Amino acid sequence: MKPYLFFLIASCIIIISCNSGSGNKEATSDSAKGTDSNTVAALPPRNPDKNCYFGSTHTHSTMSFDAYNFGCRTTPDQTYDFDAGGEIEYLGVKMQRKQGLDFTCLTDHSEYLGINQLLIDTTNPLSKSPVGKLVNSGNKDSAFKAYETMALSMVHEKPIDYLVDPKVIATNWKYEIDIANKHYKPGKYTTIPSYEWTSAPGFANMHRNVFFRGDKLPDVIFSVLNSNKPEDLWTWMEAQRKTGIDVFAISHNGNISNGLMYPLKDTYGNPLDIAYAERRMVNEPLTELMQTKGTSETHPTLSPNDEFADYELFVNLLYPAKVVPSKISGGYVREAYGHGLELLKSKGGNPYKMGVVGGTDMHSGMNATEEYNFNGSHAEGDNTAKKRLYAPLGIGTDVIKESAAALTGVWAEENTRDAIFDAMKRKEVFCTSGQLMKIRIFGGWNFDQNTIKADDWVKTAYANGVPMGGDLPIMSGSAKAPTFIVQAVKDPNSGNLDRIQIIKVSLKNSKHFEKIYNAVWSGDRKINPATGKLPPVGNTVDVKNASYTNTIGSAELSGFWTDPDFDPKVPSCYYIRVLEIPVPRWSTYDAKALGVDVPKGNPTSIQERAWSSPIWYTPKKS
Amino acid sequence: MIPKIKRFLSEPFLHFLLIGLMIFVTSSYILKRREARKIIIDKAVIAKLTLAWETQFGKTPDNKELKIALDDYIKQEVLVREAQQLGLNQDDEIIKRRLQQKMAFIIKDNIIVPDPDETTLESYYEKNASKFTESPKVSFSHIYFSADNSNSEKARQRALEVLHSLEAKTAPPRAPQLGDHFMLLFDYNNVDKTELTGLFGDSPFTDSLFTVKENKWFGPFLSGYGWHLMYVNKRLGNITPPLSKIKDKVIDSYKNDKLNQMDDDAMVKLVEKYNVELKVD
What we know:
Helices cover about 25% and strands about 20% of the residues of chain A. Chain A is of the alpha+beta class. In chain A, strands 1, 4, 5, 12, 13, 17, 18, 20, 23 and 24 form a ten-stranded mixed sheet that branches. In chain A, strands 6, 7, 8, 9, 10 and 11 form a six-stranded mixed sheet that branches. In chain A, strands 15-14-16-19 form a four-stranded antiparallel sheet. The radius of gyration of chain A is 26 Å and the shape is globular. Chain B is of the alpha+beta class. Chain B folds into three domains: about 15-90; about 100-135 and about 240-280; about 135-235, Roll (Chitinase A, domain 3). Chain B contains ten helices and four strands, in the order ααααααβαβααββα. Chain B has helices at about 1-10, 10-35, 45-55, 65-85, 95-110, 120-125, 150-165, 195-200, 205-210, 245-270, and strands spanning about 135-145, 185-190, 215-220, 225-235. In chain B, helix 3 (about 45-55) packs across helix 4. Chain B is elongated and about 125 Å long. The two termini of chain B are about 60 Å apart. The model of chain B has no long low-confidence stretch (mean pLDDT about 90). At the A-B interface, helix 1, helix 7 and helix 8 of A face helix 2, helix 3, helix 5, helix 8 and helix 10 of B.
């Protein structure tokens, strides 16, 4: 009997081992980790009148190939710690915001995401590759060369094949999600999973940041190495939505897009039509108005009558070590609003009905927007006062042109991913040049001087009108012109307020025009009847001591405004711009620290400001 | 003895068995080799490739595109298996790291931390009291004197006048109507310094909320907006809430610490299974 037994056992073993060899099991345990570290505490009740939350929609950590090669070693963990108000060490210096933020979108470049961490691993063959050697050389110039090589490969659409293993990128994207989930504290501090799509054909900045609601996320992200055409990014986002992933994109730096950010033709040269308008607005409801590389609201050549148009401009393309001015028309938001209205009239669709946000785009891993607390935005390129005042940035413009800017204000019911994401989608958001000023505008047909005097005016405003980002309801029978209520409350850690302006963009003979009205201002200044302008608020800045006093301006401005030049037959849009009194620019603090004068040709003080998303009026179709 | 063995060895049934076993072993070896060289394209594979294509390119692949994806898949399978045969997966840092990560997740996922009993929880709470200590908080009411459309000195003077009127012992703990309209709130409960710096600025007003005596009007103090008088009702120092009030929080913290500790222990046990030899000449 024994042989039988042996035979039986032997055959069993063989069969078992055969089976287990062919079974191709995949370990999946690491893919389903959600927000495990968040113990769900009771949230404060949702506020239907909405609270104001501040954050940045644009930052880079050491996971971005360029930030790393500039010398930034700030990890995603540290980015969130810093933004939430904590202290971190940055290139040997302790950094902390005076006031923490409410939310952060860490938008590392999807291209070559986190690849430097592999390149510096000497056991990895990639460390011996051409780019790996540059990264590991240990000197700053070679590291910059590595940045240049990678950036150029993106500009020229020639991916460096050994650096684009999709599995590596997917793993690093998952890492970014995990860290974002870890720092998300509903009700206190929100992180929104996001990344940057870095398209730059011919060095024209066509970048978009891509944002996800966060409950469902893609494993693979669409980068410029897939395509540099925004239309293809939209196709990808549309496919994501079909699978239940909520996503939109925000364009940025129209100012250095060579006039391509808000074009009058699509990427293939076709004139824009209603279909383009609809697609663009679903996929890109917002645009970034300001960041460390300048303001994209308007330019003095586009707005010659706007005495505040020349604000923190950054006008050259990001060419390595070359000065090439960016084409102006097509690159600024106010002009795009006008073109949008023209297209609405001629083609029936407005592709530029965008709300506005602010981000820093700082490649330091920190949203450091306080003028008195600015330590540069490009790591080794600008981390000392001396470099900031005198060094060239190496990409088109001197470091001193950088801004300590910008932030987004969001009006939302609560500080959660859902509430902030939804507020961004409905454009109830505004951009500030970096401070935490709260601004509101409501439009309707029957507001008056007394509306805002009531204690519960916000309730009335929502009930009888629309907030920033909205469309005016159909004109009511007796109304003659739209009415607006506006309010601005200063950042208690920054300058007082100078004025609230209403900026109107509308059409005359099918061409767009803009008009600026001063609606509310501090003090007893009178509008000059000859020029129509309000005299300046004054300037308390002591340049030598880099200080100012809040002896001018107001802590709060609020009031009522109605359009005196309203034409109900043409479409229009209205947004507010709120100015602070002058405060020292960051470079003035640096000059004081070094005991030198601010280099000539640069402002010593600035009037920080905030811009709302517009409210649109569309005539009833007859 | 020997004839018995001889008889046993010449037993045809034994031959039959041995030959059978040989055939079985050989054929299963061949089958296994063939199995190792087999690349099966089934519905699951196609579904996986289709999904990957959709997420990457935003459209369902047509037949031509599916063929491209399939070709890539086959090439990948072939190269991976060839590489495995050559042992190329043996000392690769990326593969090692990925396996390390997967294993670490599996170990952690399989740890179940039991709920602590009352005594365990109490002793954990006592040992880790500093973890649950809250920063000082203050509850107060204030009166605001705006300098808007006026000037700072005038606003301060107005505040001083009101303060004098509030120096009587019967002064009310709340009197916003004696000052100006304020865009935030007049009353705050249990707020800490970080929050106050955001609300009122890094200012003498914010600092004084933590130094003045309770239950009396003080001022005027300058905030980021203007002048204020303040009446502090209650201040909570560095207090640690009783366990009963923060039980859930303590349990979460305990379980988290315990999980990390058990994870470390599991790692130590795993390492103990191995012999680490030091060979340094």
